Amino acid sequence: MTDKHHIRKAVLVKREGLPCEKQALFSSRVVEALRQSEVLARSTSILAYLPFRGEVDLSLLFDWLQDQGKKLAFPKIIDKANGYMEPYFVDTPWRNNVKPGAFNILEPEGDIRVANPALLDLVFVPGVAFDSESYRLGFGGGFYDRFLLRLGTHTLKVGIAYQFQVMAQIPRDPHDIALDGVCTERGLFLK
User: SS3 of 38, please?
Assistant: First the structure.
């Protein structure tokens, strides 16, 4: 098995090199798979993310979620040095309540309120790579690793990726938490 550094490097080169048209096409397929899912239908409070370095773009989903009366939250980095982030609900329209933050990633700002992680129904988790058992490999800062520990037992954790980011197995550490599934342009796959 290849080490985390080499997997990160190889996947990020491929992801960041994906043509814009393919990113848009694959992202729209992921959004459609999520919109049609029972998981999303039964969730009322959802943590999403705003794309960074070629990640799947879920922004086409956000207006629809808010139109459906769902509570939409995004993570905000509170302590960069210690890898700590906090979720914040954003009011409609979500675009008016985000601005570049840490690492130049769009974060909640303005008309926002703290969301209790333990009460979220659904969390969309970005990553560099995922495996067949829904473990994830992130950028290495530990932000999501720490955050996932704070979720409620009922919270569904779904990785979001392009299919090429999913591999048979990725290296794991004892503190790694498996997600409940992964959604790619090929569909939503839950354990």
Answer: helix
Q: What are the strands, taking DSSP E only, across 30-145?
A: 45-47, 71-79, 84-90, 98-100, 106-108, 112-114, 122-125, 129-131, 136-137
Going by the DSSP 8-state scheme, the letter that residue 178 receives in this structure is -
Residue 47 Cα distances to 62, 91, 100, 169, angstroms: 10, 13, 18, 26
Angle at 31 between CA 26 and CA 36, to 5 degrees: 130
With a CB cutoff of 8 Å and minimum separation 6, the contacts of 108 are 73, 74, 76, 88, 89, 90, 97, 98
In tens, the pLDDT along 91-131 reads 889 999 999 998 899 999 988 999 999 999 999 999 999 99
The whole-angstrom separation of Cα 85 and Cα 149 is 12
* Collapsed DSSP state (helix, strand, coil) of residue 48: coil
Beta bridge partners of 181: 158, 190
Q: Quick one: tokens of 20? A: 């814009």
Distance of alpha carbon 20 from alpha carbon 91, whole angstroms: 29
Q: Is the pTM above the cut of 0.85? A: yes
- Domain architecture of the chain: domains with CATH: 4-190 (3.40.50.10420)
Residues of the chain with pLDDT under 50: none
